[in-house]
Amino acid sequence: MAESLAEFFVTNFRARREERAYGQRCGYRMEWFTYGQVLEMAARFAGDLEAGGIGKGERVMLWGENSAEWVAAFFGCALRGVVVVPMDDGASAEFAARVAGQVEARLWVCSRRHAAEIAASSVPVVILEDVKIPALSLQEPQGQGRGTLGQSDVVISRNDILQIVFTSGTTAEPKGVVITHGNVLANITPLEREIGAYLKYERLVRPVRFLNLLPLSHVFGQFLGMFLPPLLGGIVIFQDELKPSEIISTIRRERVSVLVSVPRVLQSLKQKIERDLEDRGKMQEFRRRFVASEGKHFLRRWWIFRGIRRQFGWKFWAFICGGAALDAQTETFWDRLGYAAIQGYGLTETTSLISVNHPFKLGKGSIGKVLPGREVKLAEDGEILIRGGGVAAGYWNKGGQGRAAGELTRSGEVTDKDGWYRTGDVGALDEAGNLYFKGRKKDVIVTPAGLNIYPEDLEAALRRQPEVKDCVVVGIERGGNAEPCAVLILRDDLHNGASVAEVVERANQALAEFQRMRMWVEWPEQDFPRTNTQKPRRNVIAEYAARQILGTGRKEVAGGSPMMELIGRVTGRSVTGANGDTDLNSGLGLNSLDRVELISALEDRYQVDLSETRFSAARTVGDIERMLSGEARERAVYHYPRWVLRWPITWMRWLAQYFLMRPAMLLLGWPRIEGRENLRGVQGPLLVVCNHVSDVDFAFVQAALPALLRNCLAIATRGEALEALHTPAPSRAFFGRIYDRTKWVLGVSLLNLFPLPREAGFRQSFAYAGEAVDRGYSVLVFPEGRHTADGKINPFRAGIGLLAKNLGIPVLPLRIAGLFALKQAGKRFAAPGKICVRIGRPMKFEAETDPEQIARGLQSAVESL
User: Which of 66, 539, 564, 679 sits at 20 to 30 Å (Cα–Cα) from 651?
Assistant: First the structure.
C-alpha cells in the first residue's frame, strides 16, 4: 500500500509509461501525452522546485485550465512534498491574490492568461504551458536542476499536507480545506480494490476513454481526472467547451467511453436531443417508443434508440456526475436509452467521495452506497454526518489568535469531539444502504406551519412539465416567514401560449398542499447565472425573484446583464454603464477579431449557430440581443464525413489524382510553377492559402504541390453550396436529387472537399480542419471567401488568422496568375504555361501573434507573389 500520493503516482504511471494518458485541445488540434511523458514532466518540475529552493511544506499556487501540464505540475509538487493550492480557472485575480497572500505562496504556476492578471505580483511566476517538454528517457536526469524518480531525499508520509483547497466565494473570507496524502489515499484504496475485480473485463473495451468536464481544481475532478484513470489504464480527454453539440461531437470523434460532468451537462444534452427530435418532427414517435421500452433488456433498448446512440458513437456507455443531485427525470431519460448514469456524492472536506453508485448495480435516484472506510449517519434533522480517513485534517489558518502562520486549526473545527463532520446536506438512507440527497440544509424552506420544504422536490415536479427548460425554487422571506417561489425558464418551442401560472399549477397537482408554489417568476435570460461547476447561483436568482415579487428595486438581473458580462469577459474591457443602445464599435471598441471571438462565445453560451454576415452588420448590443431571439432556433447543419480521411478512400483518391485529375489539367492548361525551391525539405502538414479566381483554383494548386502534399490535401469549399448537394431541396426532382448526391459523394471522396460556410458554423469547419491536420493532411483555404471580380485580391476574412493561429502549422502562400484574364475572355482552355502558380516561403507565426496581424501578413505575402 502506498504511503504517499507521490508513491502512488510513480508506481502507477511508470507501470503504464508507454500507454496514452491525456488528450487536450490545442487550438483546433488534439495534443496527446503518454503516462511516461506526464511522469517525466512531473519529475522535471520537481527538480525545478528543488533548484528554486522550494521545499517540503511550502505552498505553490496552481491556476489554469485542465491540461496534462496541470497534472504534471500537481504531481511534481507531490514528489517534493510541496503543498499545492489549486485555483478555479474562473476565479478572479483579486480572490486568487488574497489566497496567495494567506498561504504565503512561494510560486505561481499559472496559464499565460492568468499571468497577465497577476503581473504586479512579487511572487515568481511559472507559465503553466511551459511545463510541457518533449518525451525523454526516464532513466537519467536531463540538465541541472532536473530530478530523477525514486531518488528524492524528501520523506513524505500519509500525514503530510498534499493540497489546500479554498471553497468560499470572492465576497467572503477565503477558507482553505487542508487535505493530506492520507486523506486522498483513504478514498483511493477502496475504489482500487473494487476496480481490481473488474480489470479482466476491462480488456474487452480497452482503453476506457474519459471525457472530463470537471475542473481539476476540485477534488472530484481530480479523482476522475488523475487518481482513478491510471488504475484502469484509461485515457482522459480535457475539454472546456460545454456546448452540447461539441460534447457529442467529441464523444463520437474520440470514441469516448465515459463522460464525467455535473448534472447540468446531462440536462443540456437531454434537451438537445429532444430539441433535435422536435425539429425533425419525430418527438411523438420518440415518446411512444420511450414509454414502450420501459422494463425491456438494455440490449433491446440499445436497438430501439440506435439512432440516438449512433450520434454518440457505439463505444459510449456511461455518465459519471457529481457536484449536485441529478434529477429523477434526467436519470430516467438516460437509463431508458441504455446508458448508465452513475452518481457520486462528496465534499471538499471529505476529500470528495463519500458514496458512489456501482456502474452495474445502480440504485435509481440515489447517490450510491457509502464507500468502505467511511461511516455515515443522519442527525435528527436529517443532516448527513460523515466520519473516516477521508475527512480533511482541518482548515488553513493564516496566523493570529495565538497561532503561527500556517498552523492548522484544531480538528474540532472540522469535526466534533467524536470525529463526525456535519456536511450541511440533508439526506435519507434506505434499507439497502443507498444514500439519497434531499438538498442543502441552508436551502430548506421552513413554512409558517414549521414544515420543511426541499426545493429539489418542487424542482422535480416542475421539470416534469414539457414547457420547462430549467427551473430553480428559492425561498422568499415575507412577513417573517419563507414561502417557495418558482423561477422558470420556458422552452420557446413548447410554450404554445401556456402561461407560467398554468405550468406551475400543473406541477402543484403532484405536490402536497404545504409544498405548493404560490409565487413564480419567469427568468429574463436564456439561462441562469452559474458557477464554474454549472450550479445555478441561487443567491443572485433569489435576489431577482424577491425584487420582482416584492417590488424592491430595479427589474434587471443582479450583477448586470449576462450579455454585458460576456462582452466584458471576451473583450477584456469594462462595460460599466453599457446598455442595449451602446454602440459595439464606438461604445465598446469591438474590432473585427473581437466580433469573431464574441460570436464564438455567444454560440457557446446560448447554444445556437449565428450568421457571421448578420452578426457583422450588428451595430449595438440591442441588435445582438434581437438577433439571438430571432435565431434561437437557427441551427445550420453541415456534414463532415470522417470516412474520407481513412482507407480505402485515400487509395481511391490517389488513383483519381493520377488517372483523372492530372490528365484533365493537361487539357485545361498545365500551369507554370514558380518558387518550388521554397518547398525543399518541407513535409507538411501545411495550411495553404491562395487567391480565389474560379471554381477550378484547387486543381491548379494541386498541380503545383509536390506529391507528398498533393496526395494528402483537404480542400475547404463554400459550405452552403456543398450542403445543397448533400441535402437537395424537396422541390428538386428525384433524379436531380440523385445527381446532386452523387456529385457530393464524388466531391468529398475524390477531391477531399469539406464545407467552410460563409454564414454560420465556420467554427465547426475549423475544428474539422484541425482533425484533418491531426491525421497528417494539409489544408487548402481561399481566405477571400469569394471569387475576385476585378482581378485584385479581396480582403482576407478575419477567420484565416484564427485558423492559422490555432492550427499551429506552417502557412504556405500561393498565388494563381493569368487565370483571371482567361476567365474574362470566356476561354475554357489555355496553352501550357499560360497560367502561373507562384509558391512563397512557408510562414510560421508565434503563438502570441494577434490573429488580425496574421491575416494581414498572409494577404501581404500572397499579394507580393
Answer: 679
First to last CA, the chain: 67
Q: Which three cell numbers stand for residue 122?
A: 512579487
pLDDT digits (tens, 9 = 90+) for 453-507: 888 889 989 988 888 888 999 988 765 567 899 999 988 765 556 788 899 999 9
Determine, yes or no, domain membership for 329. yes
Q: Would the pTM of this model clear 0.90, i.e. be above it?
A: no
Residues 456 and 538 in one domain: yes
DSSP string, 291-313: HHTTT--HHHHHHHTHHHHHHH-
- Do 710 and 820 share a structural domain? yes
Cα distance between residue 639 and residue 597, in whole Å: 23
Neighbours of 505 (CB within 10 A): 14
How do residues 313-347 score in pLDDT, each as one tens digit?
999 999 998 877 787 888 899 989 999 888 888 88
Quick one: DSSP state of residue 396?
Answer: B
Residues 6+ apart with CB under 8 A from 34: 17, 18, 19, 20, 21, 135
Residue type, 678: N
pLDDT > 70 in the chain, percent: 84
DSSP E strands in 44-186: the ranges are: 59-63, 83-87, 107-110, 125-127, 161-166, 176-180
Alpha helices in 631-761 (DSSP H): 649-656, 662-668, 697-704, 707-710, 719-726, 734-750
Task: Give the count of beta carbons closer than 10 Å to the beta carbon of residue 611.
Answer: 18
CA–CA separation, 105 vs 172, rounded Å? 20
C-alpha cell at 26: 490545442
Q: CB burial class (10 A; 0-12, 13-18, 19+) of residue 120?
A: exposed
305 and 178 part of one domain:
no
Q: Is residue 224 part of a domain?
A: no
pLDDT at 725: 93
Q: Which DSSP symbol is given to 202?
A: H
pLDDT score for 759: 63
In a shared domain, residues 351 and 456: no
The whole-angstrom separation of Cα 685 and Cα 774 is: 9
**What is the CATH classification number for the domain harbouring 452?**
3.30.300.30
Look up residue 315 and give its amino acid: K
Are 681 and 706 within one domain? Answer: yes
Helix axis angle for 68-80 and 5-15, nearest 10°, is 130
The partner residues of 394 in beta bridges, in order of sequence, read: 178
Per-residue H/E/C for 595-647: HHHHHHHHHHHHCCCCCHHHHHHCCEHHHHHHHHHHCCCCCCCCCCCHHHHCC
Task: Provide the 8-state DSSP code for 507.
Answer: H
**Residue-wise pLDDT tens digits, 69-94:** 999 999 999 999 999 999 988 888 88
CA distance 123 to 33: 30
Secondary structure class of 350 (helix, strand, coil): helix
Is residue 452 domain-resident?
yes
CB 99, CB 172: distance < 8 Å: no
Mean pLDDT of the residues in the chain: 83
Distance CA 704, CA 690 (A): 12
Residues 592 and 524 in one domain: no
Query: In a 3-state reduction of DSSP, which class is residue 367?
Result: coil
Print the domain residue range for 594: 581-630
Per-residue pLDDT tens digits for 154-177: 889 999 999 999 875 434 466 789
